Amino acid sequence: MGTKKLKPVNVSEKAGTILRQYGGVLLGLLVLVLVVHDIFGTHGYLAMRRTQQEIKKVQADLQQLNKENLQLEEEVRDLKTDRHKIEIIARDELGLARPGEVIIKIPQSQQLPQNSTVKP
Question: Hey, where are the domains in the chain?
Fold first, then answer.
């Protein structure tokens, strides 16, 4: 059997050949991976849109809470200063009466329906 002499392989030449053959494909794959990551990644376009929608929802909730807060502040102010409202609450919720008044409570089961057309 004969022996062949092997030529020394130059690694840089081989790498250059591979890059020339597959360089465009590798570059295209890299660009594709980057684009997919920018769209679907953790901080990509879709995540940014989702975060913006959450911000809008939280801002709407905050506005609603601010409205409720203003209403409650007004109610507190009225309860501190408006004698008529204080009297209504004292009579209806606490069952208080002025001196000389008598409170008669009718059990719920014996009360007539509110929309009844029956005249006493």
Answer: 13-42, 48-98
